[in-house]
Design brief:
Mean pLDDT: 93
Radius of gyration: 17 Å
Low-confidence stretches: 1-16
Order of helices and strands: HEEEHEHHEHEEHEH
Structural class: alpha/beta
Helix content: 40-55%
Strand content: 15-25%
Strand order of the largest sheet: 1-2-4-3-5-6-7-8
Length: 242
C-alpha cells in the first residue's frame, strides 16, 4: 500500500519551485533540473542513468523535494541527448567510461551551476542510478567534498589506476543480487577495494532484485526492493544532511 501511495504522488503532485536549468560548459550546452523548498535546504546532487535527464530523474527529484531537499539533476550528456535505442545508450555511456576526466568535469560543472542557483553545495549528498551510480563512485574516488555518496544499481568496477584513498565521506551502495549486468563478484571486489583504503561504506544487497530494480515500467522492476532502497536513502540523507 505504501508503494501505491508513492506512485500516486508521482502522478498528481508537482513542486512549485521546479525548473529546467540550461547551462554551458566549454561551449557545450546542457539541460539539468533544479527544485528547492527553501534557500537553505540541504542539497542532493542527482546523476542520471543512461537515458539522460528524463521523467524518471524528475520524479525522483520531486519526491526528494517533498521530503525537504533541494535537488539538482546534473546533465552529463548534453542538451537534447536523451538516447532511446540501446546502441545509442551504450555509445554515450561508453564515451564517458573511456574518458573519466570528462565525466568528473561535467559533474563538477553541474555542481558549479547548482551553486550559482544558490544551492547549498557545502551541505550535499551525491546520488545516482545505473550510469549515475558509476559516476557517483567516480566522484567519491576523486575526493569530491560531499557529505555522502549513494550508488544505486550502478557499475561497481574500479579503474586500474584509481583507488578509494581520497574519499571524503561515507559511500552507500545498493545492489540487486540477481543483477545480470553487475555481478556479485564485482560487488565483493568493490567492498574489498573500499575496505583496503579505509573508505567508510555501507553495502546493501536486495535478494532476487535485478538490474534497474528501481525503475518502474521496465521488466526488472522490483517494487519491494525499490521501496526498501528508497527508505534507506531517506535515512542516509537525514543522517548526513540534517
Amino acid at each position: 500500500m505504501k508503494w501505491v501511495a508513492l506512485t500516486f504522488f508521482w502522478l498528481v503532485s508537482f513542486p512549485l519551485l521546479a525548473q529546467p536549468v540550461h547551462y554551458q560548459m566549454n561551449n557545450e550546452k546542457f539541460e539539468g533540473y533544479f527544485v528547492s523548498p527553501a534557500d537553505s535546504a540541504p542539497l542532493v546532487i542527482l546523476i542520471h542513468d543512461w537515458d539522460g535527464v528524463t521523467d524518471y530523474e524528475i520524479r525522483r527529484a520531486d519526491l526528494l523535494f517533498e521530503a525537504g531537499y533541494a535537488v539538482f539533476a546534473v546533465d552529463i550528456y548534453g542538451t537534447g541527448i536523451r538516447p532511446v535505442a540501446i546502441a545509442d545508450r551504450k555509445h554515450h555511456t561508453g564515451e564517458l567510461y573511456r574518458d573519466r576526466q570528462r565525466m568528473r568535469d561535467l559533474i563538477n560543472g553541474g555542481l558549479n551551476k547548482a551553486k550559482q542557483l544558490g544551492a547549498e553545495t557545502n551541505n550535499a549528498v551525491m546520488m545516482g542510478y545505473c550510469l549515475g551510480g558509476t559516476a557517483v563512485l567516480e566522484m567519491a574516488r576523486s575526493g569530491s567534498p560531499m557529505k555522502g555518496f549513494v550508488a544505486i544499481h550502478g557499475g561497481l568496477g574500479t579503474p586500474d589506476d584509481q583507488n578509494y584513498k581520497d574519499v571524503q565521506a561515507e559511500i552507500l551502495v545498493q545492489h540487486g543480487s540477481a543483477d545480470a549486468n553487475i555481478t556479485m563478484q564485482e560487488f565483493i571486489a568493490l567492498s574489498a577495494a573500499m575496505d583496503k583504503d579505509n573508505a567508510p561504506n555501507e553495502m546493501i544487497v536486495y535478494g532476487g532484485a535485478e538490474h534497474s530494480f528501481t525503475k518502474a515500467g521496465n521488466p526488472h522492476y522490483d517494487a519491494h526492493a525499490d521501496e526498501k532502497s528508497w527508505q534507506r536513502l531517506l535515512m542516509f540523507l537525514d543522517e548526513k544532511l540534517r
